[in-house]
Design brief:
186 residues; alpha+beta; elongated
Length: 186
């Protein structure tokens, strides 16, 4: 890595997140997870960038300072991947990754990406809980998002909660729910 800069930027929810811009001087781009590990050894967790963006050079003002306004916004072409992208494998994982991508303002999210390492934080975690409740009718705890931060893990927990909810229902409640679902289809 030849040069780097870290800036704070407001995300779609209004919260601040740290973006790291790096110049790799012609070398292959490292994975964001590799850079994050390197940075974690030198900075506290709260100073860890959520996104790493590759640039050809850092823009400089006429006064020799970093031109923050000339830095590109992160997108699918310049953002370094965490690890190898793993696409959703089930409809439930597809829905969970779509919810997280929308919440964080990202184009896509892999099933093994950590919610907190790609820009999530506790306030966004509460919004994720609300969106999961709306989409699946189950209540995740904030603790479960910290303990199970990947979409794959969250999908498994949502499935477990949905099954537990069905197991707790009486036969009449299940029949009523099935009847409502059939009526909604027509």
């Amino acid at each position: 890595m030849q040069a780097s800069a870290i800036i704070a930027q407001e995300d779609p929810s209004g919260a601040k997140r740290l973006l790291a811009y790096i110049v790799c001087d012609g070398r292959p781009s490292p994975r964001a997870s590799e850079l994050r590990t390197l940075v974690l050894n030198q900075l506290p967790d709260y100073m860890l960038p959520s996104t790493f963006i590759r640039v050809d050079e850092l823009p400089i003002t006429v006064h020799g300072k970093l031109d923050r306004n000339a830095l590109p916004a992160p997108d699918g072409n310049n953002t370094l991947p965490e690890d190898e992208f793993v696409a959703p494998r089930t409809p439930l994982e597809e829905r969970v990754t779509a919810i997280i991508a929308n919440l964080l303002g990202l184009d896509k999210v892999g099933v093994n990406e950590n919610f907190f390492l790609i820009g999530g934080h506790s306030l966004l975690g509460t919004q994720l809980i609300a969106r999961v409740r709306d989409a699946f009718g189950v209540d995740l705890s904030l603790r479960s998002i910290f303990d199970l931060p990947t979409p794959a893990q969250l999908a498994q927990e949502i499935e477990r909660l949905m099954i537990a909810s069905l197991d707790a229902m009486s036969a009449d409640e299940i029949q009523r729910l099935l009847h409502q679902a059939r009526a909604a289809k027509t």
